[in-house]
């Protein structure tokens, strides 16, 4: 090690002008820096992207060929039904990773350094959630591409697809606050994964994502019809297949906003208590 | 840079304090029923190195985490350069750098990426951040390893990077939590050199260590901490004179002679000698190494045969023995001390109780880290 030349001396603590709060601008800049960290990590460990690259391909191909003939008579007829469904299901599933990774991250030493820095307290959390929207975007793109390859030609056109993509990513981001909350209160990464999956499976499968709800028993149909995920799926179908925006999109957005309104403060509070 | 270090104007603090970098009174931290820190007082003068010496689980790390705003105080008061730790945490964070096993760097990022990230978080522009990182990597001899994954870093390189990350904002107070634990002697010496350089540049350093040697080498003042309380505080010289500058260890050929040998040692050296649990080894502090000559003469006159003799620097264990009357890992003796309320009773107990509780102490430390 070369000898240190720190001689241009350090300003004594008492001679510094300091303030005890972080400005909003600083906070946004901190969150963006933290999101940048998330992106570097993705680049460093590309295997983390398996769930957003392989999973959409496997699910789309698997569900379409298994259910296509039985539900819609043929695979081609099933595609307009299943692609929006699988898109919602896959992207929401990938959002679970947010909570698990957050838990792992917070158990590491580097989180303590973040906490010892004069940055916005919320920045590490906000940055992580922000960086994860990239994952949702990747999953969305790959699901659509797989659909195209299998012969899906959405009538809604490019704007319908883009609108659907933005809607799905935004709603998944909203739902990721739920997983982030579990990430805060869970004891370990694996328990976070466990709780999240327990919520996720009923939420995504008890919807109209894979089959029309009218074939189900009435009590289940009732739940499927009030499940916010069903509204999201219907909204995505409207956008991709017809290029229209209906009440379902509105309800999906209201649902997403409600999730954020409830879970963001809960998550932030749990996070601050730990921080 | 300019946003980080204000021009030397009059400070806006309520009670700026030029003399004391750290003033803590009666710090308390509870983890459930366990009083991990139980009334710690610390006063660290600006521009000095202060050593907090103690075994695993003594409460060193917990104390530092409280001062660094990483843990809430359950009792007591603490100020950093006159700023209250409870009321002005964001100001404290602008004044400190923290390096330890817990406040480390991101293992998924390279050295440069880490330093750039922390620089950006501290408000440097992209260009400034890159320049600052390069400068720090150069200073810490890490330029060649700048792009390598941290997985391949040696222990010493990791510590240097940790320290570099703490110095980005040039904080006037740096917390070093066991900076050399687990490092080889050469790397340790390099780390010491770095710490000395830091102080000569105007920083105040509060370091914790398990090594008496390290505290002796670096610190101007030392607090010895045990079970969450400060058991001794003073300059290194004061501390050393209380425990002797070196430590004598003798092993007897015939364990039956242990009592008479102890009596001889105490008389010749004028200090309290302690018989080891297995009963054949005697340890005693020594002021002057040359006194060993007198001792050997008297022992021969008495016809006491030695199988082994050594004179060493006192270890932390001996410091503890001498200051608290119980050894580092001897929990049972400690309970006896609490019950009897007297050091004499405890030293008697420690001499007879096998040391079995090292694992307990380690477990307690782990708990405190986790919480």
TrEMBL record, chain A:
Cited InterPro entries: ABC2_TM, ABC2_TM_bact-type, ABC_2_transport, Nod_factor_ABC_transporter
Protein name listed in UniProt: Transport permease protein
Record keyword Cell membrane present: yes
Any GO molecular function: ABC-type transporter activity
PROSITE patterns: ABC_TM2 (PS51012)
PANTHER family: NODULATION PROTEIN J
KW Cell membrane (keyword) present: yes
A GO-annotated cellular component: ATP-binding cassette (ABC) transporter complex
Bilayer topology annotation: Multi-pass membrane protein
Organism superkingdom: Bacteria
Swiss-Prot/TrEMBL keywords: Antibiotic resistance, Cell membrane, Membrane, Transmembrane, Transmembrane helix, Transport
From TrEMBL, chain B:
Low complexity bias: start-end ranges: 335-365
Keyword Zinc-finger set for record: no
Annotated localization: Cell membrane
Keyword hit for Transport: yes
Domain (ABC transporter): residue spans on this chain: 22-252
Single GO BP term: response to antibiotic
A cellular-component GO term for this protein: plasma membrane
Membrane-related topology note: Peripheral membrane protein
Keywords: Antibiotic resistance, ATP-binding, Cell membrane, Membrane, Nucleotide-binding, Translocase, Transport
Family: Belongs to the ABC transporter superfamily. Drug exporter-1 (DrugE1) (TC 3.A.1.105) family.
Name of the molecule in the record: Daunorubicin resistance protein DrrA family ABC transporter ATP-binding protein
């Amino acid at each position: 090690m070369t000898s240190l030349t720190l001689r241009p001396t350090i300003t004594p603590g008492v001679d510094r002008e300091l303030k005890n709060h972080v400005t909003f601008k600083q906070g946004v800049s901190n969150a963006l820096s933290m999101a940048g960290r998330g992106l570097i990590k993705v680049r460093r460990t590309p295997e983390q992207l398996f769930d957003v690259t392989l999973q959409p391909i496997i699910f789309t191909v698997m569900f379409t060929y298994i259910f296509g003939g039985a539900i819609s008579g043929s695979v081609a007829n099933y595609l307009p039904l299943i692609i929006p469904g699988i898109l919602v299901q896959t992207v929401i599933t990938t959002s679970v990773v947010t909570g698990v990774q957050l838990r792992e991250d917070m158990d590491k030493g580097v989180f303590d350094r973040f906490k010892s820095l004069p940055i916005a307290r919320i920045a590490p959390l906000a940055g992580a959630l922000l960086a994860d929207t990239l994952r949702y975007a990747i999953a969305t793109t790959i699901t659509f591409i797989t659909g195209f390859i299998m012969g899906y030609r959405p009538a809604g056109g490019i704007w319908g697809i883009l609108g659907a993509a933005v809607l799905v990513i935004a709603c998944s981001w909203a739902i990721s606050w739920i997983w982030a909350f579990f990430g805060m209160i869970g004891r370990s990464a694996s328990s976070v994964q466990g709780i999240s999956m327990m919520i996720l499976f009923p939420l995504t499968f008890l919807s109209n994502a894979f089959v029309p709800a009218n074939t189900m028993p009435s009590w289940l149909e009732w739940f499927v019809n009030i499940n916010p995920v069903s509204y999201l799926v219907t909204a995505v179908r409207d956008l991709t297949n017809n290029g229209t925006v209906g009440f379902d999109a509105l309800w999906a957005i209201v649902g997403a906003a409600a999730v954020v309104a409830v879970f963001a403060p809960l998550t932030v509070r749990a996070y601050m208590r730990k921080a | 840079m300019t946003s980080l270090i204000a021009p030397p104007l009059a400070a806006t603090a309520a009670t700026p304090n030029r003399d004391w970098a750290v003033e803590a009174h009666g710090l308390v931290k509870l983890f459930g029923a366990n009083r991990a820190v139980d009334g710690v007082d610390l006063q660290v003068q600006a521009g000095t190195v202060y050593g907090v010496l103690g075994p695993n689980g003594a409460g060193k790390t917990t104390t530092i985490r409280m001062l660094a705003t990483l843990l809430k105080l359950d009792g007591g008061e603490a100020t950093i350069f006159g700023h209250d730790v409870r009321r002005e945490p964001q100001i404290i964070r602008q004044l400190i750098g923290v390096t330890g096993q817990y406040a480390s760097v991101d293992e998924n990022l390279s050295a440069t990426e880490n330093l750039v990230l922390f620089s950006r978080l501290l408000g440097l522009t992209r260009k400034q951040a890159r320049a600052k990182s390069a400068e720090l990597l150069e200073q810490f001899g890490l330029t060649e390893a700048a792009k390598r994954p941290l997985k391949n870093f040696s222990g010493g390189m990791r510590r240097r990077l940790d320290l570099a990350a703490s110095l980005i904002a040039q904080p006037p107070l740096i917390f070093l939590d066991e900076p050399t634990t687990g490092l080889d002697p050469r790397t340790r010496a390099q780390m010491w050199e770095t710490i000395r350089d830091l102080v000569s540049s105007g920083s105040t350093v509060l370091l914790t260590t398990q090594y008496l040697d390290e505290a002796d080498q670096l610190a101007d003042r030392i607090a010895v901490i045990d079970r969450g309380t400060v058991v001794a505080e003073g300059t290194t010289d004061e501390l050393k004179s209380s425990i002797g500058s070196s430590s004598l260890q003798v092993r007897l050929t015939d364990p039956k002679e242990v009592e008479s040998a102890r009596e001889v040692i105490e008389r010749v050296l004028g200090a309290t000698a302690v018989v080891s649990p297995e009963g054949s080894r005697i340890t005693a502090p020594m002021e002057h190494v040359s006194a060993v000559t007198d001792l050997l003469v008297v022992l021969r006159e008495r016809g006491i045969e030695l199988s082994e003799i050594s004179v060493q620097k006192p270890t932390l264990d001996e410091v503890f023995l001498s200051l608290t009357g119980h050894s580092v890992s001897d929990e049972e003796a400690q309970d006896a001390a609490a019950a009897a309320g007297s050091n004499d009773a405890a030293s008697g107990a420690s001499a007879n109780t096998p040391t079995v509780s090292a694992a307990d102490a380690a477990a307690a430390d782990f708990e405190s880290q986790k919480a």
